[in-house]
Amino acid sequence: MSRINHFLDSLDARDLAAIEPALERLSLRQNDVLTEPDQPVSHVYLPIDCILSVVVLMRDGGQVESRTLGREGGYGLLHSLGSRIAFERMIVQVSGDCWRVPTATLQAAAANSPALTRAIVQHGQASLLQAARSTACNALHPAEKRLCRWLLLTQDRLDSDVLPLTQEHLAIMLGVQRTTVTGVAMQLQARGVISYSRGRIRVLDREGIEACACECYGAIQETTRRILQG
Questions:
Q1: In this structure, is residue 221 part of a structural domain?
Q2: pTM of the model
């Protein structure tokens, strides 16, 4: 039976049976903080229809998103194979459900299964790829193109035209001021590709957003596909 999470659905029956008794389904709310820097990662979170945001914190209080995680993978997978200390904050960006399993449970199961270890590494690599691509994108591409990339990735994960995104989250994601978020969103609205109101974006013309987005959206999708197909 599908669990609507790519990592779980990729496991064979034996590996799934090893962790299934410890799997717990949770309903998460927007802005819930699930991990903090320098704290142990006690659980692996595997989204179903929520979206998680991994945020890097600076000493002056600044913060920027390094990557987002949806049903294609999860947070904490690589922690089950190595250090269990978090180096970033992880928050719920879009409310919804997810699976949770103790990190120790996944570690013990992986110790007895090369196939499970491979699945963990592959999905971890896909997450790190997105972080690397986001770093390059934030440095090289204008805010409008970055926002379009993010809207496409979010819509893929939610299967919905309505994206419940706050101005604060968008500012963290783009690494810009809130006023910049408003300006960019209004430009896209003027083109007729989205409608924008506080706390919500509705996708009106996906093809138009794809035309506006930078190359990074397609690169993330293609490279992720190649990694997960092995």
A1: no
A2: 0.91
